[in-house]
Amino acid sequence: MISCRLRILLAERRMNRVQLSELSGLPLNTLRPLFNDTWKRVDRKTVDRICSALDITYKGLFEDLPEQPVLFNDGKK
């Protein structure tokens, strides 16, 4: 599972979404799903603009989380 680290990165920089929006030129509505890690798809240009604004690579923006084990089976497939 891939997770977006935007919330963590902004906290480390003591920056908020409005500041990132101004710095990157991206609308807040574009940043919201990445910040909340609820995104389904992300545009390459969006990633490029965030990474440029934060001076990071895409590898710093995303992390690969291990799959969570199934703790119980409810009988559904």
Q: Which key terms come to mind for this protein?
A:
two-stranded antiparallel ribbon; 5 helices; 8% strand; 2 strands; 434 Repressor (Amino-terminal Domain); 77 residues; mainly alpha
Can you offer a commentary on this structure?
Helices cover 49% and strands 8% of the residues. By secondary structure, the protein is mostly helical. It has a single domain, classed as Orthogonal Bundle (434 Repressor (Amino-terminal Domain)), CATH 1.10.260. The chain has a two-stranded antiparallel sheet with strand order 1-2. The longest helix has 11 residues, at 44-54.
**What is the number of independent domains?**
1
Helix fraction? 40-55%
CATH class: Mainly Alpha
Low-pLDDT stretches are: none
- Given helix and strand content, the structural type is mainly alpha
Number of helices: 5
Tell me the fraction of residues in β-strands, as a range. 5-15%
- N-end to C-end Cα span: 19 Å
**What is the typical, i.e. mean, pLDDT?**
92
N-to-C SSE string, H for helix and E for strand: EHHHHHE
Biggest sheet details? 2 strands, antiparallel
In the CATH hierarchy, the architecture is Orthogonal Bundle
State Rg.
15 Å
Shape: elongated
Stated plainly, the CATH topology is called 434 Repressor (Amino-terminal Domain)
CATH homology group: lambda repressor-like DNA-binding domains
Number of strands: 2
The spatial strand order of the largest sheet comes to 1-2
